Amino acid sequence: MTLRDLHTRLTALFPLGELTEQRPNLGFVTVPADYLRPTLLHLRDREGFTHLVLLTAVDWLEDGQFQLTYLLSNRAIPCDIGLRVMLPREGASMESIHELWPTAATYQRELREMFGIAFPGSPRVEEEFILEGWIDLPPYRRDFDTKKFSEENFNHRPGRETTDPAAHMKKQLYPGGL
Amino acid sequence: MKEELLKRWVKGPDGVEFEVEPLRDYYCEAPPTVMPAAYIKIVEDMFNWARAESIWILGFGTGCGAIEMRPLMTPRFDAYRYGVQWRPTPRQANLFIISGYLSTKTLKRAIRSYEQMQNPKYVIGLGSCTINGGMYWDSYNTIKRLDDYLPVDLYIAGCMPRPEALLAGFQDMKKLIRAGKGEGANKYAENFDWYKANQKKVIHDWDMPDYNW
C-alpha cells in the first residue's frame, strides 16, 4: 500500500485536500474540521493507523488561523500520516478526540494552555498543565512578546553585553580588516 | 488557591467536627530571626571551622546544572573526600545549590526548600542563568537574578561549569564560612520583607505561608 493509494481511497469517502508526500512513508493531508472525527475513526479502525503519535498546533498569525496536526502511525507497514485541520484564530475551538485516544486529552490540555485553543468536553482541560498562575496571553501564540514580558516581569542585571557573532569573529580573525 | 489549602470544617472518625486551616495549622507562622554570633570570637571561629568542614548539600536539581552533580558525587570526581555530601531532605542540608535556570514554578519549590533548611544555611548559584539569566534572558518563565529572591553567598560562572569548577567553588565557600562571611540566612531574616515582595511579584499563585519551616 502506498500513500497515493490510501489518499485515493480516503478522498472517495471524505472531502480531503491534496496529499503532501514528505517521504515515501510520511504524508500530510488537510481535512475540514467537521470531517476530522470520521476520518480518524476510518484510519484507526479500517486502515490500521492505531497509534496517535502527536497532536500539535501551528500559529499562522498572518492568515488568522491555527493549524492542528494529528499525526497517526501504522506500525505494521510502517507508515505515518498527518491530518491537518485549519481553525479560525478568533475564539479557536475544536472537537475533543479523547474518546478515540485517551492520550489526546493531555495534548489538548497543553494546547489549551499554550495556544488558548478550547477543547470542550476534554477531561481536566481547564486545569493548569505546565504554567502556574499565568496572567498573560497564552505564551506560544505568536503575538505574545516573550522578551517584553520578561523585561516587564523579571529584574534585569545591568552590565550584560551582546555582540553580533559574525562581526565579533571578523574582528577577532582579521584585526586589520579584510 | 488549591481546595485542600482552604479553611474548612472536617468531621473526624469519632464524629466530632473541627476546623482545619492548613496554612496556619501545619506551619509555624513566626518569621525568621537573625541568629547572633557566639559570645566570644574564638568559639564562633570554632563553630565556623566545623560548619566549613561539613557542607551538606540539598539534593535538589533545578536546571541542566543538576547533571554536573552526578559525576561530582560519584567516584570520577568524588566530592565526598572534601567532606561534601548530598542529603535527601532540606532538614539535613545546609547548602542549597541552585543548579542552573530557575523557572518561576521551580522558584516556588526552591523557596520552600530553602526556608525549611536549618540555620546556618548557604546558597550557591551555579551557571550564568542564576547570574543574569544566561541563555534564558528573554524567556517568559525563568527569573534572571537569583539574588533578588534568595540570599546568594557565591556564584560559579559558566554554561555549564565543569565539576572541577564546583570543587573549586566548594573550597571558596569553605573560606567564606571560615572567615565568618556566610551570613546568607541572617541577610534573609534582616531583609525578609524585601525578599518576600520580590518573590510574590513573580509567583502569581502564591499558595503557601509567608515562611514555612
Structure, described:
- The complex is a heterodimer of chains A (178) and B (213).
- Chain A has 178 residues and is of the alpha+beta class.
- Chain A has a single domain, classed as NADH:ubiquinone oxidoreductase Nqo5 subunit (Beta Polymerase, domain 2, 2-Layer Sandwich).
- Chain A is 28% helix and 22% strand.
- Chain A is built from 5 helices and 5 strands.
- Chain A has a 5-stranded mixed β-sheet with strand order 1-2-5-4-3, covered by helices on one side.
- By secondary structure, chain B is of the alpha/beta class.
- Chain B has helices at residues 22-25, 41-52, 66-73, 104-116, 128-132, 163-178, 184-190, 192-202; strands at 8-11, 17-20, 55-58, 84-87, 95-99, 122-126, 154-156.
- In chain B, the strands form 3 sheets. In chain B, strands 5-6-7 form a 3-stranded parallel β-sheet.
- Chain B is globular and about 60 Å long.
- Chain B has 8 helices and 7 strands, in the order ββααβαββαβαβααα.
- In chain B, helix 2 (41-52) runs antiparallel to helix 6 and helix 3 crosses helix 6.
- In chain B, helix 5 links the parallel strand 6 (122-126) and strand 7.
- The longest helix of chain B is centred in the C-terminal third of the chain and has 16 residues, at 163-178.
- At the A-B interface, helix 4 of A face helix 4 and helix 8 of B.
